[in-house]
Amino acid sequence: MANLSVIVITKNEARNIEACLQSVSFADQIVVLDSGSEDDTRQLARHLGAEVTEDGDWQGFGVQKNRALGLARCDWVLSIDADERVTPPLRAEILKVIGESRHDVYSIPRLSSYCGQYMMYSGWNPDRVVRLFRRGAAVFSTDLVHEKILTDHSVGLLHSSLLHESFANFEAVLDKANRYSTAGAQVLQARGKSASVSKAIAHGLWAFFRTYVLRRGFLDGKMGLVLAISNAEGTYYRYLKLWLLSRQAHADMPDRALQAESVPDTSRHP
C-alpha cells in the first residue's frame, strides 16, 4: 500500500504546530523543516513524532519547501502549513486516492478563517490548492512568497476541505501584511516592475473593489468589509514599497557613478 510523507516548514509556530501535526498523525513520515524558531516549535514537533531539521538559510518559501521535499522518503507527499488542519473526511479521502493512484497530483479545497470567521466569499472560497502529489511528480516554484506547485501531470480533485486558521487576530493580519508587502515589493523589483504613489493608490482601490464587490465580500458581513480593506492596504503597501525601493535605487546611482569616476584608469601608461 502507498505510504505518505507530510512536510511542514516552520518558524515560531508553537501556537499552531501541535494541532497541525495531530491532524496528520496518520502519515508514515512527518517532516518539519524549521528556519530558526525562538519558541518551542521544534520541541513540540519532536514530541509529536516529527523528524525535525533546522535550516536557517532562508531564501524564500519556495526554496524552503523544496528543501523539506528533499527530506521526504515516502511514495506520496502532502505539503501543509503550520496553520492548516487536515479534517477527518479529508484524511479518509487522501488515504483512498493514494491507494487508487488515478492521478499523481491532487488539489484540495481550502476553507480559511479570518479573525475567527470562516470566509465563504471574498475570493477565499472556493480556494483550491495543490498539496498532494506522488514524490517526483511535482516541485515548488522558487518564489520568495506565494510559491506554487510545478507539475506536468494531470491534477485530480479532492472534495473534503483543508482548514486554514490563517489569522487568529488582527495583529496577525497587520504582521503578515507588512512582511508580505515587503517581500512582494522585492519580487516585483527583481522582475523590473516600477510603481508610483498614484499606482499604489490605484492598485489598492482595485484590490478593495475586487474583494468586496466582484468576489462578493459583502456577503461575508462586517468581516468581509474588514478583509477587503486589509487587502487594499496590503496591496497599497506592496506598490508603495516598490516605489520607495525604486527611489532608493535611483538615489544610489550618483554615488556609484562618483565611485567609478574616482577609480584611476590603469589601462593606459604614460
Account of the 3D structure:
This protein is of the alpha/beta class and 270 residues long. The chain has 2 domains: 163 residues, Spore Coat Polysaccharide Biosynthesis Protein SpsA, Chain A (Alpha-Beta Complex), CATH 3.90.550; 90 residues, no CATH class. 44% of the residues lie in helices and 21% in strands. It contains 7 helices and 12 strands. It starts with a strand and ends in an 8-residue tail after the last helix. The C terminus is likely disordered.
Number of structurally distinct domains: 2
* Run of helices and strands: EHEHEHEEHEEEEEEEHHH
Q: Would you report the number of β strands?
A: 12
Q: What count of helical segments does DSSP give?
A: 7
**CATH architecture of the largest domain, please?**
Alpha-Beta Complex
CATH class of the largest domain: Alpha Beta
End-to-end distance, in Å? 80 Å
The largest sheet is: 10 strands, mixed
Average of pLDDT: 92
What are the main properties of this structure?
globular; alpha/beta; two-stranded antiparallel sheet; 12 strands; disordered C terminus; ten-stranded mixed β-sheet; 44% helix; Spore Coat Polysaccharide Biosynthesis Protein SpsA, Chain A
